[in-house]
Amino acid sequence: MNVRKMRLYDTENIHSGEDRDEYEKDYARLIQSPAFRRLQGKSQVFGAGSGDYYRTRLTHSLEVSQIAREVARRLVKQYESLSRKEHPGLMIDPEVVECASLAHDLGHPPFGHKGEEVLNRLLLEEHGLKYEGNAQNFRILMFLEKRAGSGSGLDLTASVLLAINKYPFCIDEPGRLKGVYSKEWEGIDFLRKAWGMPGHSATLEAQLMDLCDDIAYSTHDLEDGIRAGKIQMDRGFFEDDRLVAHVIHEITEDPSYSEENWVNVDQAAMVKHVLIHYLQQWEEIYAECDREPSRTRREMKARWVRKFANEVGIIDDSDAGWKKVTLVREGKQNLELLRTMEILKKLAWVTLIKDFRVQRLHKRSEVMIERLWGSFKNYENGRLIIPPDWLESYEAQKEKWTWERLAADYISGMTDAYAEKVYAEFFASRSGSIYERD
């Protein structure tokens, strides 16, 4: 059996034809799934529907998949070790990375990271359960989504499931903030053991998807911020010491912060250097583009994507006894460029997410999710107002899943607009017909 193309719940492929490659089937199942379509209505940075320009989770996922696919193709040509197929987790298929990139954000609830934060807090406080977007991906892919012939999700290949699994451990272990919920972890752990995956190492494909996600965040979100006027392309804005201090604070407070990556680095000096270099590059491209802001934004974004993507490589990870996909220069990890990427990511964060108007929207979304949760969380009340197919799913699976988890599934699957619609039906004075289709 080809362990890379095995399917957890359909190992004999009895529901698959022979006319397409297994990864092509995965791709079709993903892009035709309701969960994928709903990404068009979920916030990236700005609220979905706030304009016809800004990115949503859907456009972000498509852009990540394009970057990841092209980088994967280059790596396959560049690294001879990949062609030797020494280990299923040390291989890279562009089609697998593309599928993983398309699926990597399916678990995000409405209203972006604020929605994730609120659902996690409510579940933890009231039921000791966790909610996390990466873990919710696997709830969707392995249980909530349905396809003909399978009662257990989209029934994806092992390669794609493990390529989505950038946090390869059970989130219910003490101290874990990210990972996979325990029920889905049973399946993921089975696949990892079948592959002989070491420790908590992720496959090369999962690492590549994750890095390309960071590339997209650190370039595309800035483009949206400039377009929205949140990032002002002038020296007064970029030379403000308060901006530098905020960026440093976000870097050092990030749970993934590694002091080793910043040893002997003057953080303030480097942040200032990156910010001024970014502005100078903008000024140069602005002149080249005949002072057209739209062309300048697109060219600026393209150059930074190219700069990061061209440096993606594979090195030995001696500590883990595995391989690492990272930014590489002359055979070594390019820490300077990794730090630059982190600075640009945090620039987007402090200027967009921390903007007081965005925070007001976050507060509004927090109130909505809290009240929606209050409406659905109790079975006796919730069963009367949840769609019939969800109630049927709960009745069929209640030996495996609690009502509270299913209620969180329902809320987290909503788009921003649908969450507002349901909220308005419950708590706002409005007219409408009971025959409206959800």
UniProtKB/TrEMBL annotation:
Q: Name one GO molecular function term.
A: dGTPase activity
User: Which stretches make up the HD domain?
Assistant: 57-218
PROSITE patterns per record: HD, MYB_LIKE
Q: Tell me one GO biological process term.
A: dGTP catabolic process
Q: Does the keyword Hydrolase apply?
A: yes
Q: Which SUPFAM superfamilies match?
A: HD-domain/PDEase-like
Which InterPro entries does the entry mention?
dGTPase, dGTPase-like, HD/PDEase_dom, HD_domain, PHydrolase_assoc_dom, SANT/Myb
User: What are the UniProt keywords, alphabetically?
Assistant: Hydrolase
Record-annotated Myb-like domain positions: 254-308
The cross-references to CDD domains, in alphabetical order and at most eight, read:
HDc (cd00077)
- PANTHER family, per the entry: DEOXYGUANOSINETRIPHOSPHATE TRIPHOSPHOHYDROLASE, DEOXYNUCLEOSIDE TRIPHOSPHATE TRIPHOSPHOHYDROLASE
- The name on file for this protein is dGTPase
- Look up and give the organism this protein is from: Cohnella lupini
